[in-house]
Amino acid sequence: MNQTTNNNTSSSNSADTDNNANTSNNNSSNNNSNPYRYVKKKESPEVLAKRVEIYTYLSKLAVIYAIISTFCLYRNLSGVTMPVFGIATLVYLFATHSYFEIKIKPVSYFYGAMMLLLCVSDFLTANTFYICFNNIGIIALIFAFIFTNFYDLKKWSFIQTIWHYFNNIFSALDGASELSKDKKAVKQAAKDEIKVNGNVVNPETLRKRYVIKSVITGILIGIPIIIVVLYLLSKADVVFETFVKKYLLFDIGYIFRNFIGIAITFYLINLFAYCTIRNFSRKKEQKIIENEKKFEPIIGITTLSIIALIYLIFSAIQIMYLFIGKFSLPNGYTYSHYAREGFIQLLIVCIINIMLVLFFNNKFEDNGILNFLMTLISLCTYIMIASSFMRMSLYIKLFKLTHLRILTLWMLIVLSLLFIGVIISVYKDDFPLFSYGALIISIMYIILSFSHTDYLIAKYNLKELSKAEAKYDEDYDFSNTDYFDYNDYYFNNFEAEYSDVKLADYHYLTTLSADAAPIIAKYSDAYWAENYFNKFKYDTDFETDNFRHFNLSRYTERKVNPY
């Protein structure tokens, strides 16, 4: 290659580093006449061979995985096939990691186990809230599994790790560019003799592979035509329809109605599976930006001193007024009223505090006073968490359980556990805060997901309602006509208010999912229980026409349904 070519090559450093520049003398002279002209570089035979090898292996594996996943997931995100999808996902991840010679780290086994447990949870619950977040968690854990193995997280700070994690999630389909290049490499290999796995693959061999691929493509094109024809013939002749169902063992009408959806689901899963792994596999060791402290400690000390002072005063008030209750409250406030308000605001402040400590710990120079202030703020946050937890508990005692109140308590517990890791990271820079946080959130969410909160809500609320009704009957002996004046204004208002509150409590129970059925079935003589069970007769969110959609919670509801 002449000198001109070398100069042109050196001026094109922005191109993909995996590709070798091979330009002709003609291209060199053209570049000299037009320096702004883009010249496409030709990949070396070694790169082409590697692409053919990767595409041959990964495309087959992705297709198999997509077929299994489509069968498990299509219009069925809470059926008995969800654990099968989880197992198939783990097999795919282990197989691809083995092919690219990526070592599986111990924490990834934990992520895989948590992902599988979320798949099992989908099958056990009928609560759409948990089904939705279970599936979001499954995707997050899949990426955590891959991300942890492909990168050395010890080189990054917590903020950098979070940034790269979400960046890889949102850029997963960037692997589509590699997919396109891999396909082009296969076509190019059909023209030239190249080595794949050390063996020369001649064009004739690749052409034979294309024949097989063409046959498969023809079959795939013919499938929708066959489905349409079978469907029309089945509707034209009942005997033929019976034959199809009996001997071909599938409902052609069902397949016809869902073919497009199945095809789209298969395509997206196949694309996602290939591109995600391919996107990670092409990553070179990224340049690690050192976690340089950009700000002087005095700035952080000044800011945190003011915040810490406010928190100390607030914490003292919580201890004296709420926890001990020795001081008098403002006029118009009772202790129960004071204790039952403000828990949501405190929860938000706790979340702000964890972000505040993480920011100052990462963006300021290490300093003993600054570390002390961050620790002090963390300890004050624990007092806020305890205050919010106590307020919510008193609120639940008065107004009973709801999903939001359970989630608030759960989040407070999670924050208290996360702050342990945050405090450790203040004094230990190499503490794996990302892995610690992922471990805590995963375990706590698994506990929440498996707890069947609808069942707990129904059990607690009905118990408290029974107590309230018993006390109401005891306080007012209606069998004694001389006991109370039924025309009394205050009595009528109290009875009306009590009835409204009770009606609202029972109405809320009718909104619960099938998870609560075993408890509510014990109150089958109540009108609201009948309303609860009747809603499942018209619930079209979940199909029950084949074994794929079997869900333990919905099955239990049908078994205990007294109506």
List keywords for this structure.
563 residues, mainly alpha, 4 domains, two-stranded antiparallel ribbon, 22 helices, 2 strands, flat
Written description of the protein model:
With 563 residues, the chain is an all-alpha fold. It has four domains: 3-42, no CATH class; 46-215 and 261-281, no CATH class; 298-448, no CATH class; 453-560, no CATH class. Helix content is 72%, strand content 1%. It has 22 helices and two strands. The chain has helices at residues 3-10, 25-33, 45-73, 82-99, 106-124, 128-150, 158-170, 175-189, 203-236, 238-247, 252-281, 297-324, 335-339, 343-363, 368-399, 403-427, 433-450, 453-475, 489-510, 517-520, 527-534, 552-560, and strands spanning 194-196, 199-201. It has a two-stranded antiparallel ribbon. Strand 1 and strand 2 (199-201) form a beta hairpin. Helix 3 (45-73) packs antiparallel against helix 4, helix 9 (203-236) crosses helix 10 (238-247) and helix 14 runs parallel beside helix 16 (403-427). The longest helix has 34 residues, at 203-236. The protein starts with a helix and ends with a helix. The model is unreliable at 1-36, 284-288, 483-487 and 489-497 (pLDDT under 50).
